[in-house]
Amino acid sequence: ILLTHAINSFLKNNCFIFHSDYGKKGVTLTTAQRLKNQITNPEQVKEFQNINLFTGKNNIGDIDCDVPEVIELADDFLIPSGIEFGRESTPRSHRLYKILDLDKKHTKTAFTFRDSDKDNTLIELRAHDHYTMCGGLYDENEKVVYTKLNKLTEITYEQLHKSVAMLALAAVILRKVRLPNVSAHNEFYKEIAGVLRQYKVAEDDAEKVFESVINKANCENCIKDKKVRFAQL
By C-alpha distance, which of 153, 136, 154 is closest to 145? Predict the structure, then answer.
């Protein structure tokens, strides 16, 4: 019943969805095969199929929040999305938007931070020539779950791209300030303020990043001394 409701919501929002092998997140289908497997009616969906969104089609873009810090901060930077879904363990990791001025050159933008030898992707903005799994079963035996299935929010590409970039930046700062060896937060935020100034981040954007990180970092001293932190900025 929930999957049928989700399919109806995707179709009402003019999303291009197609089916693929059940239990496999990776889709190797060619563009022609994806077009052939298009779903235009919930009755076409069989019990053991994965459902995928063909991003870029009809100006639909997907924000894929890949790491805990990004998911934790997402609501501070991304405008509310009409459709949200994800794995059972991360039910709000995907957010869909109607991008009013989407261009063919807008394919996929991935924000990464190399601090390990694993996948270093923080967040992705997916559009043309990409896809997102939005129904079925992941390789790790987790199902797709839905948290919002309403009308898609409309936004311009520049607005969305900037929000994603700021979210990625804030996520890195949040990750760093929580490290066990970062005890001198006074010095830490002073150094971060210098970096933001060096790279000419607008003052109101820098304040938004500081506000979000301080609120989520769970440091009582930083919250108590928030005025001092902003004075440093």
Answer: 136
- Three-class SS of residue 133? strand
Strand ranges (E), 21-169: 38-39, 50-55, 60-65, 83-87, 94-99, 108-112, 121-126, 130-135, 144-149, 153-155
Rounded distance between C-alpha atoms, residue 59 and residue 92, angstroms: 21
* Interval 168-196: pLDDT, tens: 999 999 999 999 887 789 899 999 999 99
Exposure class string for 170-180: b at 16+ Cβ within 10 A, else e: bbbbbbbbeee
Integer Cα distance of 113 and 122 in angstroms:
7
Q: Token pair for residue 68? A: 């805990």
What is 147-209 written as a DSSP string? EEESPPEEE-HHHHHHHHHHHHHHHHHHHHHTSTT---HHHHHHHHHHHHHHTT--HHHHHHH
Residue type, 152: L
pTM: 0.94
